[in-house]
From TrEMBL, chains A, B:
Homodimer. Binds 1 pyridoxal phosphate per subunit. Its main location: cytoplasm. It is found in: Cytoplasm. The gene is serC. It is an enzyme of class 2 (transferase). Its EC number is 2.6.1.52. This is Phosphoserine aminotransferase. Pyridoxal 5'-phosphate binds at residues 108, 158, 182, 205, 247-248. It comes from Ideonella lacteola. Keywords: Amino-acid biosynthesis, Aminotransferase, Cytoplasm, Pyridoxal phosphate, Pyridoxine biosynthesis, Serine biosynthesis, Transferase.
Length: 371, 371
């Protein structure tokens, strides 16, 4: 296999780094999957070969996340931004104009709110805009409306670097509406309490890998509510009834996701990913907090994301030098999102501890040279 | 590279066979694209590496199909069935209930009609249902309504094996509505007369390769008409304004499509694909017509698809033996669509002449042994 070894560490927020064994296997099987004479990209989605790949991916995913049998696992397209419309088209019915409450904790939930307003009476139940998106509003302060079609949260804000350690317990808040959680950028890094969830979705291109695949978990009783204007290809009921094969699914992305699921399982499952996420993120946050102010992260301790760590240099005129030196040191894609600025290190499952160690080592060295 | 050589010939209707050099290059670049230290699947879609891949793919596609500057080239998701809703959500506005005329020539256009009826007053302008889908209704007989938002055709019916040799000239029929053409399964096998087109779309998983990518060509004056309920991620105006990067695009599928575009160009472009399509399909149709009735194709000569050739054994009890023998001879995925039965050989651009020669050779041998 033609590749430089070791590879640089890639901190992209998504599409993002993939486990090297997954890429090697995909490369090896590109022309001929398991001796069938076809590559995965060339298989009919209705043939026995791809059906086995698809079923295995679903089964491993169910096992990894302990998905209960009353949840459907759907493989869809359109990403998180597509899902921002697909969710209300599916859940705000059967009549238009239902109530949707969105907890605004950053850029992603804000986009979800704006898109839901096309289909529903959607409002912010809470917002951290006023405090500079540094903390997650306490659930007790959320203004939840009686009879809302659903409550939306983004449990990890990729751009702002905030994360909910667990899904909120709406029942404990006296709310009977189903919870919709956008888990795009931390799925498979911690367990999901399914008893609190109605719909969980995740674009695969962050913590799983290939762009163009969206995972959607839908509780059985939430099927059949779609608005009449919901496209068939994006109607959860239709997709579920056809086993994600109403239209041609993104077959290669499903295959690669399946390889990632197997890799996670072989590493020790979600429990081990959880442990590593705690270890990796603590290493970086501890340095940020102890470095004496050369760098800093602005998020409250209780709301810090283990997946996406935005940080800022005290002297922002050094940003370009920091990024150039990082690239030379084999530390890629550290530039922050344009709406936030500064730097961002994404520490997804596929990022080894050694990558974070190398990053912190570089940061220390850079601070010493420019402090 | 671990692969058996030569590979079997794969006649799948889609996802379908890819050019071997494309697969080899994709495998070689899996862990490191052009020395950047990342595989294509791991790149931020906003980084300079992927932007160059994306821009190159668009430029080569524009060159191959001589796309005029007043057409936008969009890379979207959701496939043909998704597009069946996305087209009316974009073009049947600005008020709901616009008129949509659909020319029904087979399974795909029939699905397009049914989905358009969710958003518009959509009707069949013509239908070949009554004649068993053996011919394309003559344009002069189409019942086109004054002021229709658009007229929809499927210029190659993958399941039924019918193809329009050119896009219909609506102006010559006295119709001023824009033409929408679903070219999914014959795109890049012949030129497109853009003066006749308003929107052309194509799922990539048939004649280009990877599933999960939809190519959409939209004439500039057709932007800005979307219904209010059109999701932002599927609004042609939004997608065009963001250069297909409003949401994360299916990056790997775009990369592979770009490799296919380069391969087509290196082979001699669309003119050469056109010549080969004529040669390959003639070889198979000539044998079907001359074989003395052991096999037959039911489509009228003028409507026969060069891409998808359904055929039937005179004695259908031999179907399983035919398919088993074909597999042994290295001829894969020849079973017909379940709604049609019999056999189907898809002869997309990536199918070499040698594959069709091998198929006809096998068919002759099988007929001799069972005739």
């Amino acid at each position: 296999m033609p590749t430089a070894n070791p590879r640089p560490f890639n901190f992209s927020a998504g599409p993002a780094t993939l486990p090297e064994p997954v890429l090697r296997q995909a490369a090896e099987e590109m022309l001929d999957w398991h001796g069938c004479g076809m590559g995965v990209m060339e298989m009919s989605h209705r043939g026995k070969e791809f059906i086995s790949i698809h079923e295995q991916a679903v089964a491993t995913l169910r096992e990894l996340l302990a998905v209960p049998s009353n949840f459907h696992v759907l493989f869809m397209q359109g990403g998180g931004l597509g899902e921002n419309a697909i969710v209300p088209m599916n859940l705000a019915g059967p009549q238009p104009g239902g109530l949707v409450d969105v907890v605004v904790t950053g850029s992603w939930s804000k986009k979800s709110l704006a898109e839901a307003q096309r289909y529903a009476d959607a409002r912010a139940a809470a917002s951290n805009d006023a405090d500079g998106r540094s903390a997650i509003p306490a659930p007790g302060t959320w203004q939840l409306r009686e009879g809302a079609a659903y409550v939306h949260v983004c449990s990890n804000e990729t751009i702002d670097g905030l994360e909910m350690a667990e899904l909120p317990d709406l029942a404990a808040l006296g709310c009977r509406s189903p919870l919709v959680a956008d888990c795009s950028s931390h799925i498979l890094s911690r367990t999901i309490d399914w008893s609190r969830a109605g719909v969980v979705f995740a674009g695969a291109q962050k913590n799983i890998g290939p762009a163009g695949l969206t995972l959607v978990f839908v509780r059985d009783d939430l099927l059949g509510r779609a608005l009449p204007i919901c496209p068939s290809a994006f109607d959860y009921s239709v997709v579920a009834a056809h086993g994600s094969m109403f239209n041609t699914p993104p077959t290669y992305a499903i295959y690669v996701a399946g390889l990632v699921f197997e890799w996670v399982k072989a590493q020790g499952g979600v429990a081990e990913m959880d442990r590593r996420a705690a270890e990796k993120s603590a290493l970086l946050y501890n340095y940020l907090d102890d470095c004496g102010g050369f760098y800093r992260n602005r998020v409250a301790l209780t709301a810090r994301s283990r997946m996406n760590v935005p940080f800022f240099l005290h002297n922002e005129s050094l940003n370009d030098a920091f990024l150039a030196g990082a690239r030379e040191a084999g530390l890629l894609q550290l530039k922050g999102h344009k709406s936030v600025g500064g730097m961002r290190a994404s520490l997804y499952n596929a990022m080894p501890l050694a990558g974070v160690q190398a990053l912190v080592g570089y940061m220390k060295d850079f601070a010493r040279r420019h402090g």
